[in-house]
Specification:
Subcellular location: Cell inner membrane
GO molecular function: acyltransferase activity
Distance between the termini: 58 Å
Order of helices and strands: HHHHHEHEEHEHEEEHEEH
GO cellular component, one term: plasma membrane
Number of helices: 10
Pfam families: Lip_A_acyltrans
Protein name: Acetyltransferase
Structural class: alpha/beta
Radius of gyration: 20 Å
Oligomer: single chain
């Protein structure tokens, strides 16, 4: 679609979203209740996928417990939509109150030593607030440091521009997946350090190299491209452990994985990420994105990794 025509057609939606973002979060949460009812009770958005994922990942839980997790997940998902829109009009001060970053010295110390960093994170709510890390780093505004996140461009150009605007709200840069290696090599050649977030918990794209392992009681193909890139660039590696402390409040804890990915055993980083991811999800299953078809394709484990019968 012609970009000018697209802008005209989507302008009313943009005005509506900006209007919503001007409301305080307590008002948005009142709207979230209606969105929850729509998604869960009326549209029943991917209810079957969510229920199946929870049943297979947590077979030890009773049906009532899994149903409670499912309902809380849909409430969190509804909040996520409005919290993300709120990024259009939210002050730095309010964001610092609502998402607290712990162990920032892990990142700042790596920058002190001249290291660029690959940061693993996941679809735990609300991942769209993670770029607020710039508000907590003493390296914010430094000319030789970039805060980045990798993304897959959306097919709809208007929606893509909208999401890029939200994600750059606090000064971070979005790098397209297809050019991320080239972009990071360019930064390195220019003497620029970076921390780059990779969402590595999703279903791999067709043809992506993977590591089969057990995750949440299920054989899972884990993305290995993140580790491969970190090893190639000899970056440090950390994990963003995002947790939901109360409605509208989050804590993101930085956890060290490696000072130099190239010095670790092959696939060690991917395995450690999988362990950390599982720990994050099991802490509160309702905080992870269960609507994606993570296990759509069957995965065969190597013989030595298959679960043993008791």
């Amino acid at each position: 679609m012609n970009r000018h025509i697209e802008n005209v057609l989507y302008a009313p939606m943009g005005w509506m979203l900006h209007g919503l973002a001007l409301l305080p979060l307590r008002a948005l949460y009142a709207l979230s209740t209606g969105i929850y009812a729509l998604l869960y009770h009326i549209v029943r958005y991917r209810r079957k996928t969510v229920a199946d994922n929870l049943a297979r990942c947590f077979p030890h839980l009773g049906s009532d417990e899994r149903s409670a997790i499912e309902r809380r997940f849909y409430r969190n998902l509804s909040d996520y939509f409005l919290e993300t829109i709120k990024l259009l009009h939210v002050s730095d001060e309010e964001m610092r109150r609502r998402i607290v970053f712990e162990n920032m010295e892990v990142l700042d110390t790596l920058f002190d030593s001249g290291k660029s960093v690959v940061a693993y994170f996941s679809h735990c709510f609300n991942w769209e607030w993670a770029p607020a890390i710039t508000l907590w780093s003493r390296y914010k505004g430094c000319k030789n440091v970039r805060f980045c996140q990798v993304y897959r461009p959306l097919k709809n150009e208007w929606a893509d521009r909208f999401m890029l605007r939200l994600r750059s709200r606090f000064g971070s840069e979005s790098l397209p997946k297809r050019t991320v290696l080239r972009d990071l090599l360019r930064m390195r050649s220019e003497g620029i350090m970076s921390v780059t977030g990779f969402m590595s918990d999703q279903k791999p794209s067709h043809g992506d190299p993977t590591l089969p392992l057990m995750l949440l009681n299920r054989p899972t193909a884990m993305i290995t491209g993140t580790e491969t890139l970190a090893r190639k660039l000899k970056t440090a590696v950390i994990y963003f452990d995002l947790s939901h402390t109360s409605r509208g409040h989050y804590r993101l804890t930085l956890k060290h994985i490696s000072d130099d990915a190239s010095e670790t055993a092959p696939m060690e980083i991917t395995r450690r990420y999988a362990d950390m991811l599982q720990e994050s999800i099991e802490r509160d299953p309702a905080d992870w994105l269960w609507t994606h078809r993570r296990w759509k394709n069957p995965v065969k484990l190597p013989a030595n990794d298959e679960p043993q019968a008791e």
